[in-house]
């Protein structure tokens, strides 16, 4: 009998100086073939902040500073036996240019204008974008 337990998956919204959002094209489930924010799973005894910083460095080779928590998404796909709780941060890139460091997990990495995002976005990415826009509008 397979027991499915919720997992914690973290991610970060990273923008360049042109206000373009960095997205990665996923090679693995969940959401194979979809564009996603960079991130990954929280390890035992690791905070969500530590995990986000570590995962971004492992996946795309950059150091980041976490600015604020944007949202927490409940990513549940019963048919795929997936249940992730996903905190997503707004972060600033501190060093280097993002590159694919985990080619077994990432097919592509691109910067996108917010008005020209790809159509195949993960649920977590879509939710984070919606919450980001809501936060920006409430600050204006």
TrEMBL record:
It comes from the Bacteria. Transmembrane segments: none annotated. Pfam families: NUDIX. Gene3D superfamilies: Nucleoside Triphosphate Pyrophosphohydrolase. PROSITE patterns: NUDIX. GO terms for molecular function: hydrolase activity. InterPro entries: Nudix_hydrolase, NUDIX_hydrolase-like_dom_sf, NUDIX_hydrolase_dom. Residues 5-135 form the Nudix hydrolase domain. Keywords: Hydrolase. PANTHER family: ADP-RIBOSE PYROPHOSPHATASE, DIHYDRONEOPTERIN TRIPHOSPHATE DIPHOSPHATASE. Belongs to the Nudix hydrolase family. This is DNA mismatch repair protein MutT.
